[in-house]
Amino acid sequence: MNRTFNVLLVEDDPVLGEAAMEALPLLGHRVTWVTTAAAAFDALLVSHSLEVVLLDLRLGDVSGETIFEKMQLLSITYPPVIVLSAEPASVLRLAAQRIKTSHIVQKPASIQEIDRALRHAVESA
């Protein structure tokens, strides 16, 4: 049986968020969905059970990167991060470098691609 994870989904698109909230639990994952950087930051500070973060780079209130740049400045430990965005690959790579992750998934992505990324991110942490 495959291991399942506590996932923080940081996604402001309601269609994509709802799709992930339906699909990821079918694979056994538990998902906390937030739509703003502030809510993501709060969730990461409060919940110590989160095992991996799916991060959309372009949120309505502020860049998704800002969350992790702030956490790095405050020396707060956080789970592995997967950058999830429709941005060009070069933009994704730069953002991933800034938040110190090598895990990238380009939208649109299948649920299987996301599941593989979740597993890889947690296993390589």
How is the topology of this model organized?
Blueprint: E1 6-10, H1 14-26, E2 30-34, H2 37-46, E3 52-56, H3 64-73, E4 81-85, H4 89-98, E5 103-106, H5 111-123
Parallel strand pairs: 1-2, 1-3, 3-4, 4-5
Using brief descriptors, characterize the structure shown.
single chain, 125 residues, alpha/beta, Rossmann fold, 5 helices
Polypeptide structure, described:
The chain is 45% helix and 19% strand. It contains five helices and five strands. It has a single domain, classed as Response regulator (Rossmann fold, 3-Layer(aba) Sandwich), CATH 3.40.50.2300. The chain has a five-stranded parallel beta sheet, with helices on both faces. The protein is globular, with a radius of gyration of 13 Å. The model has no long low-confidence stretch (mean pLDDT 92). By secondary structure, it is an alpha/beta fold.
How would you concisely characterize the structure shown here?
The protein contains five helices and five strands; from the N terminus they run E-H-E-H-E-H-E-H-E-H. With 125 residues, the protein is of the alpha/beta class. It has a single domain, classed as 3-Layer(aba) Sandwich (Rossmann fold), CATH 3.40.50.2300.
- CATH-assigned homologous superfamily: Response regulator
Round the mean pLDDT to the nearest integer and report it.
Answer: 92
Sheet/helix structural class:
alpha/beta
**What is the count of helical runs?**
5
CATH topology: Rossmann fold
User: Would you identify the CATH architecture?
Assistant: 3-Layer(aba) Sandwich
Q: Termini separation (Å)?
A: 20 Å
Number of separate domains? 1
Strand runs, count: 5
Beta-strand percentage range? 15-25%
Please mark out the parts with pLDDT under 50 across 5 or more consecutive residues, or reply none. none
Strand order of the largest sheet: 2-1-3-4-5
Q: What portion of residues is helical?
A: 40-55%
Largest sheet: 5 strands, parallel
- Gyration radius (Cα, Å) is 13 Å
